[in-house]
Amino acid sequence: MKKCFFYLFILYSTIAFCQDKIYYLEGTLGKSTIFMTIQVYKSDKETNLTAVYFYKNSLKDIKLEAKLKDNNYTFYFKPGDVITEKFYLKKSGNNFEGFWYDAKEKQLAVHLEPVNFENYKSNIKIRFDDERLNLVKYKFLEFKKQKTTLYNNKEIVWYSEKHCDSDFFRLGADFSEKNKTVINPILEQIHIQNTLNQLNCSSSFEYSNGQGIESTATINFLNTNLLGFEIFASYYCGGAHPDFGGSGYLIDLNNGKQYEIDDILAFDKSVTGDKENNFDAFSKYRTDYFAPKLLAVINSQEHFEKPKNVDDEPCDYTNEEYWNFPSWSYTEKGIEFTPTFYRAARACEDSFLVPFEKLKKYKNPKFPYSL
Question: Which residue, among 73, 28, 84, has the nearest Cα to 51 in the 3D structure?
């Protein structure tokens, strides 16, 4: 099935580009092993290309500008409008052959052929559909123990990854073997996904140093049954503006279940966390019940006032719309909620802690633990 993308131009003209072909390639650039993705989009009027490649010893994406004429593929890396490297490749059957040049016109031979994904099979529970070369990167990740810390007198072990700035934790020696067996694979998967995101964080403006996403993991809750933590990340991976955001996690130490906020709180019997298969009902519940009632609870302690001019003062915490899909974090003192604003008003995204006492009457009956 072809994927189609629609681009609007002046005077409302529209061109539909369909993904005609995608190539996942592995091979050599000189003596170095590299991997490359080439995507070809065709319309009735023109052909567009995108290309990304990475070295096996680095794993960091390099985004290339691309051109296709006849069967000749030309790729450039052009930060600051200065070409620092380029490929001239010709497709022959399923393979690509040609040369790579640096800024001083040093030449190295390039040979690429389709990736044999049988060599990169994995049972890890991460979706690889959109970034299939993540399967390759995953095989080359190397995690190393960095330090141990304590939280509620329990040992937490922190790991880093060799190729980029990506730190995360596992449960340490003070936890039961059952807890470690159930939870550490989940924490490892989160660490792997965060690492792949970091390695894929690149732009056409500069080479990635593996630090485009600055993330911090903070443990906020721990008892005999539950582990709560938050990952906050600020990132710039190209595009117009940097961005930031946080994600809260609450995991059952006994069975590994990851609770969402709708598993914990129910402001109406119509509550559903099934946004994948039943988004209409999910969205209706969030709009009709979750947002107004959560705002009422928070406002009872914060006493928000509507700004006189929202153009000058965009931080309108009385607007229910910003509370439909807040980020949240389960802490020792209660649940911390952060409203979601539009990009230009991201600075308004302050967090507000709601004590458990104010939330007890809204506990979802299916949540097996007391607040």
Answer: 73
| HSE value, Cβ hemisphere, 13 Å, CA-based, for 347 | 3
Gap between the Cα atoms of 206 and 238, Å rounded? 9
Exposed/middle/buried for residue 92 (C-beta within 10 Å: 0-12, 13-18, 19+): exposed
Q: Degrees (nearest 5) of the Cα angle 242, 52, 88?
A: 135
Q: Classify 61 as helix, strand or coil.
A: coil
pLDDT in tens, 12-34: 444 444 557 899 999 999 999 99
Q: CA 325 to CA 261: how far, in whole Å?
A: 10
Q: What DSSP string runs through 79-129?
A: GGG---EEEEEEEETTEEEEEEEETT--EEEEEEEE--GGGG----S---S
What whole-number distance in Å separates Cα of residue 242 and Cα of residue 344? 11
Residues 6+ apart with CB under 8 A from 252: 225, 226, 258, 259
pTM score, two decimals? 0.89
- Per-residue pLDDT reduced to its tens digit, 201-247: 999 889 999 999 999 999 999 999 999 999 999 988 877 677 888 99
- CA dist., res. 10 & res. 12, Å (int): 5
Nearest Cα to 163, choosing from 192, 184, 135, 188?
192
End-to-end CA distance of the chain: 48
| Amino acid occupying residue 112 | L
